[in-house]
Amino acid sequence: MSVSTELRRCLQAHISNEQQQYGRNPLAFFDPDSPSPAAIAGTEQQQQVQWQIHERTPSADLNELAAALEVPFPQQLSELFGSYYSGNLPASIDGHGVELLLPWNEDDFVRLQQNITGHVLMKRRLKQQDTVFIGLTEQDDLLLSVRLNDGAVCLEYVGKEPHHVLADDISSLLQQLDVL
């Protein structure tokens, strides 16, 4: 299955879990100066808002960023970050609590690309292989990253080489996630 299809399935599972457990959709930080098409109007409370999946049409890609960094990106990265606006996706895999970072709106997508640029440049300064982070873990200094040379999803400590492969690619990762 495509990353877009797998991601939608995972996001929908998260929404269903939240609805069953709390009787509402998942919550995200609410900033009136940073609206999202994923935010459900009228659900804002105490700096939080409920969200739903919002499909981007047309979808976005990371081709210009990859060209600027002079490195090919796996197409699955564009599908992960360019298919939908939503909140982040909490899950677990291999005993690790993870949170996939997903764009909330177009400004967030631009910020994500800036952060990816900084990450890749840091990796190059350290003379390490290029990776792109796609999520966080329960440990502050442990990232969920994609190796650009082969598309594998790995765990990587900040400033270190990836040390543990979780999945061969993003699609496989999404299939293996235990969505919370």
Structure description:
By secondary structure, the protein is of the alpha+beta class. The protein has one domain (about 5-180): Syd protein (SMI1/KNR4-like, 3-Layer(aba) Sandwich), CATH 3.40.1580.20. The chain has helices at about 5-20, 65-70, 75-80, 105-125, 170-175; strands at about 25-30, 50, 55, 85, 90-95, 95-100, 130-135, 140-145, 155, 160-165, 180. The protein has a seven-stranded antiparallel beta sheet with strand order 10-9-8-7-6-5-11. Helix 1 (about 5-20) runs parallel beside helix 5. About 35% of the residues are buried. The mean pLDDT is about 95. This is Protein syd. One of its GO terms (cellular component) is cytoplasmic side of plasma membrane.
**In order across it, which strands form the biggest sheet?**
10-9-8-7-6-5-11
Distance between the termini: 21 Å
| Low-pLDDT residue intervals, each spanning 5 or more residues | none
CATH class: Alpha Beta
Q: Describe the sheet with the most strands.
A: 7 strands, antiparallel
If classified by CATH, what would the architecture be? 3-Layer(aba) Sandwich
Q: In one word, what is the shape?
A: globular
Topology-level CATH name: SMI1/KNR4-like
User: Whole-number average pLDDT?
Assistant: 97
CA gyration radius, whole angstroms: 16 Å
Question: Would you identify the CATH H-level superfamily?
Answer: Syd protein
Q: How many alpha or pi helices?
A: 5
Give a count of the beta strands, DSSP E runs of length 2 or more.
Answer: 11
Total individual domains? 1
Share of residues in helices: 25-40%
Keywords: Cell inner membrane, Cell membrane, Membrane
Pfam family, one: Syd
Protein name: Protein syd
InterPro entries: Syd (IPR009948), Syd_sf (IPR038228)
